[in-house]
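Check this.
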Amino acid sequence: VFRQSVQVVFQDSISAVNPRHTIGSIIAEPLRHLTELDDTQQREKIAELLVQVGLSPSDARKFPAQMSGGQLPRVCLARALGPRPRRRIRHRQTGVRGEGHRVVALRAWG
């Protein structure tokens, strides 16, 4: 219950993701373990989360190395929002860089 209630967004987004996994797989990780969504529902949720943080659903097929330095923190934010936690913790305030990214993060955090 605690793991679903609290999700963390780490400042170092490059270290927070596995470079061998696709963006979709990275976002799906907490959905697989903390929700009861089936595979189809997970894919729909991943697309929804990517749009919510200002990315394209097609980005789910990319690998972290194919994302820009500004996109990867958004992927981490989408991963944290997936299981609908009651609390979200940012490792540091500067975890999402740039004014445009802060706006996206604030909208996504709700």
User: Anything to note?
Assistant: The chain has a mean pLDDT of 78. Residues 24 and 43 are 8 Å apart (CA to CA). The longest strand covers residues 6-9. The radius of gyration is 13 Å.
